[in-house]
Queue: 4 jobs
Job 1
Amino acid sequence: MNTTSRLFRWKYPYDTAGTNALFLRAVRENCRYQYEHNARYRAILDGRGFSPAMLRTYEDIAKLPFLPTLVFKRHQMYSVPSWKMPVTATSSGTGGQFSQIGFSCGDLLNGLHMVLKVVNRRKLFSACPCNYVVFGYKPHKSNHTAVTKTAFGATLFTPQLHRTYALRYTDGKYIPDLEGVIRAILQYARSRFPLRFMGFPSYTYFTMRMLDERGIYLRLPKGSKIMLGGGWKQFYREAVDKAAFYALAKKVFGLDDRNIVEFFGAVEHPILYCDCPRHHFHVPVYSRVIIRDVNTLEPLPNGQIGLVNLISPMVKATPILSVMTDDLGVLHDGASCGCGIPSPYLEIIGRVGLKDIKTCAAGAADILKEAGASV
């Protein structure tokens, strides 16, 4: 069993302090593999004067050159041949560009171990059959987005009776059908089996608001849950805070926040962040988060806002070992949460966009330029 496999089989998924040495070895092994099997990645590291051998201590991980997500939106960067990648996934393509990430069989097996441990901690697995309303895309052969695969995967946490999708593929495009969703909710609410929602918080909220405006208030069957993932996307201006969302869920469905679970992730960083009972995204052993100063790109201490740099050795098929997102975030000490999970937790403050990153983050534009010239 290699080092990365050992990491993804670690018994307690939030023992970051106890896995620092193992995580370092896994990062070094992944970096060496990418360096030896991906000429584009090797050119980027060489251009930054970095080699895998420089990862000697845990603190050296912060020195590992990161790749902005734009690199993967503009270039396919695979480290294994296509026949060794049974699955490829894309980002949602906001702005007309999308990342394409490939996964080997070993990568997928690592992901499976991760999902089983993280989801089990939130008691989302059940033998009781459920009806599902998916506030996301109905799977279609032309749709390879990670958010669609993730939403469908969440419906496998229990046996499924029915699935109803909010976004249906019609005449070559996806069309929202919230009226159809409302009809399904009213039908499922009369069932003796739980109803689970999964998908974008935006469409979930819009549907709850429509029910509220119509004076329709339900008490869903015991075991019903709201699972959220994918962010507000183009509806960020309509986003509401968690307290308002939870209050409306209680009013419309009779579900308190104990039955609301949120996920965070990205196709360029396919680690499952699942909120704790206090709704914080604690960092699991499979990843590390570095918050970087927007001017110097140097790591910041916990409690300060900066750009979110995500690191994980999970994937060998694509060099997504260290990626820089266009999110602004804060890393908090785990003890400040109060839920009992010791690892730090990540709070996403907002998204700045590529243009802002290039202008306000000294050095980021240079890295993009060098990467673009090398790939």
Job 2
Amino acid sequence: MSAVPKVGRILSGMRPTGRLHLGNYVGALENWVRLQDAGWTNFAMVADWHMLTTGYEDTSNLQGHTWDMVLDWLAAGLDPARTTIFVQSAVKEHAELHLLLSMLVSKGRLERIPTLKEQIRDLGMDEQTISYGHLGYSVLQAADILLYRPTHVPVGEDQVPHVEVTREIARRFNFLYCPEDQPVFPEPEAQVTAFGRLRGLDGKRMSKSVGNTIMLAEEPGEIEQKVRQAYTDPKKMRKDDPGRPEADESDGHPGCVVWEYHRKFNAAEAEAIATECRAGRLGCVADKKRLSGVMADVLGPIRERRNQWAADPDAVRDVLADGTRRARQAARETMELVRSRMGVKSIVEPE
């Protein structure tokens, strides 16, 4: 990956699973807002079709989860005037480009994607019965990205292989259909989020299904109650015991979650807190209380903005309607080029 330019164009997306937690914010959303504020051209997509690759049997919560996620996006600071916020299924060109690009990649290439193998294992699936849509979801993801011809795609480390598939497909399309013309698609670069991943309160992967999360717009009382349960150092039984903020591989200690959260949300004090902990001058109860206050302050503006947007659902609908209009315009322009270069533009123009 080459150096990131000062300003470019990005396509970002999330599967709508409802209200977001701090892991979603640190792993993706915070970076979207930062790039928006730096002047990048942003497209933020609700990837509702991608929910069907593993959850097609029950779609009863899809609309509600979409609504909650968009509220959290707006609360976190995405500005509809500077970021195009839209729902994937409202822009049908995603399906058309997915179909056309699916001709350019082999089944064997898709089966080699590491995250696909991990999903099959984690979901207890059989490779012989995986759905056609699930196997090809990385091609749909490539279509989602290339439709807006971005220069970069902000992702976590685990999604870098998918961006590489996108780059391969773009390269093959340009080679086949643009040999003497300007390429239709740039080869977008993966822009890996700096902080990466925030652990759950129990020290393991953050997940709503496990219940080890702090939600993005959590109330102060709920934050304090949850932080009380956060994993620290099991060997620090009393305040004056020396603590271990960092991981210790000798006994499998993964590092103190409370200190990890300080490093992310209270960086100015994090090292001083670690020093006090190591010296036995700071107890876990007092440290957790301090973190609870920090988190309440950090999330306060987000919570306030969410409440304001939630109180005006018509304004949220207007955001999505305008975002859809802008996304459709960009998608139509790309598909005109794609159809023309591939020679599949109908000789009979639609009415």
Job 3
Amino acid sequence: MRQAIIGGSLLVAGLICVVLGLLPVQALIALAARVLPVLAFVLGLTIVAELAAAAGVFDGLADLAARVGHGRTAGLWLAVVVLAVASTVFLSIDTTAVLLTPIVITLARRVGLPPMPFALTTVWLANTASLLLPVSNLTNLLAVGRIGLNGPIAFAGLMAGAAIVCIVVPCLILIVIFRRTLVGRYEPPDRRVPVDRPFFVIAAGVLIALVIALTAGVTVWIAALVAAAILVAVAAVRAPSELQVSRIPWQPLLLAAGLFIVVETSHATGVTEPLVSALRGGVGPAGLLGLGGAGALAANAIDNLPAYLVLEPAAAGAPLRYAALLVGVNAGCLITPWASLATLLWHARLRAEGVELSWGRYMALGCVVAPLTVAAAVGALLLTR
């Protein structure tokens, strides 16, 4: 509800700015043309992921991870890493933070292991693994049109080196933190049978088809809405009780829309120009590290989405600078609780599952992993350009 109140307040403030002439109507129309497809994608993908989870697809993937681990704790953790990376890359940051987290916690408990290593893995990788494809993060979807790359494969080519580093560095730190916990064995659990087999099969098929479409260059918002419409129609027949209004992410969408308008107004009125001017630079080490570091600092101060929007003009049309900014706002938002909406949602799921992690400890760990990850990823950009 807090998101809805903040989002509604930002929308009202934005509309007042339009009425007062601070944000020209033409600028508002151009903004709508840019962001409405992005919000439509988020809507469609969230519904698909929610219904696929309701059908048992993610439970099936968790059971597969338990079998792949072959009874070794380290093997199970590596399988969860792969699952979290794949979920983030192809189904976005929020899917991993919100849907995968309770599933891996349940999995850890089923095999008698402490859930914290798996829970912290999902939230770190939900953020840091969100660099490879446009659909991995809302910030990427906003950036890809500005960068001028032709399709998701070209975007992946630009971000591949940094994306790999942003997965490896947090995982190495997790291994150090949980080096004792990850040693040992477990008894693989029995495989769970889906409650409704046809619903499970159709949901899995739709999810696979959507992933293929998103990586093949199909217009992302159309693909997501079509997939959502198919699953809603199937659920109406097979599992009508799963068609709940709560599955519609209207609060995050309202918050994002409000942020878009307010930040666009700040650009139109010149409020952000001094900061943007100070960060303009080249594609050398100083320029990229400065922009990436500024993105990380801004994300931890005001959340990664508005941080990207505020600093976007500083990228100045250079693909490498856009890449460095994305590294900063995506992989650097691991310190404060509000640095990423996914982190707040993750913590809520954590508490709902009865797992306690203080924000103090989370922030302390983030102060280690975030700077190292951002610096190493920007270094990868420099090496692979």
Job 4
Amino acid sequence: MKTLLTISRIIVGILFIFSGLIKANDPLGLSYKMQEFFEVWGWHFLNDYTLALSVIMIAFEIIAGVAVLLGWKMKLFSWLLLALIIFFTFLTAYALFSGKIRECGCFGDCIPLQAGQSFAKDLLLLALIGFIFIYRDKIRSSLASRRAMLILFFTAIFSFALQWHALLHLPIVDCLPYKIGNNIPEKMKAPPGAIPDSTVIVFTYEKSGKPVSFTADNFPEDFDDSYVFVKREDKVVRKGNAQAAIRDFSLQSPSGNDTTLALLNENREQLFLFVKDGYAKGSWTEALNITLTQAEKKGIPAFLVTNLPIDEIMNNGPEAFRRLTPLRSDGTAIKTAARYNPTLFLIRGGTIIHKWSALDLDQALKALQQMP
């Protein structure tokens, strides 16, 4: 029994620490995933709190994992772990059985698990944590209470510091489709050999006050003017795997022309500053001005990619913005590409050479100075 309890604690502790560290590398990713769930449930009022919830949940995962390994205060942490895993299992079950959310974000973007895989993982953890919960009174820490508390204190400091660094300076390990080295036009294509979704057109009519749905293959034999059209929809009957890594990226001129491929296929260095609504303000605009001056010396064109109205951001934004050629893009694409707002990309031929958060523009300046 003691051996099984120890093995269960090790597995649960390591998995929680591993999961927490992966998500701590990109806390905004979990925040966006929370917003996805809230959008589906209609809980829009919680969207402004998802980042705080994300940071707290990630820190707790790491702290709880360490506490389980140490066997410290298991009467408390066994309750907390049980509550957390029941919540996670509910989320993954909802994603799996509702079909409304493809991935739960359990391991962030670095290890994307399908809903079924996440649900199976959580069922295993639920069983292990349930076992730990039942025998929680038999667990004793091998460390003195003061030493265990010191370890957990520094664990908490580390988990919050790691997330703070990632939020200000971009993820340490970039697992996004916009990571350095990726070619954006290539990532916009479905992978070779991919199977598209199999869909069927479903018609919904109303007859005698009741809705009636059917496909083109099984039209009712008595179909006539008594059927009143309600809607037509494409229903997925078999999921494929044809999704491109980048699905919503576009660059449009102020006049509305799509210039995405025309710009990204140019075989020269280009700078793209991604700016989303509510962007951070501060002294980085001075560093941007200096960086743009260096780019002009090197003959490198610079663009402003934003979801904001062009006139508004060019007239009311920092003076440095007026030195950029404005382009419109989707807000979802911008928040995926630029984890800090704003973020500067250096691109050549559609391939991402480098990217910097607005707080690291001094590094961008050095990179441009070293270019021939």
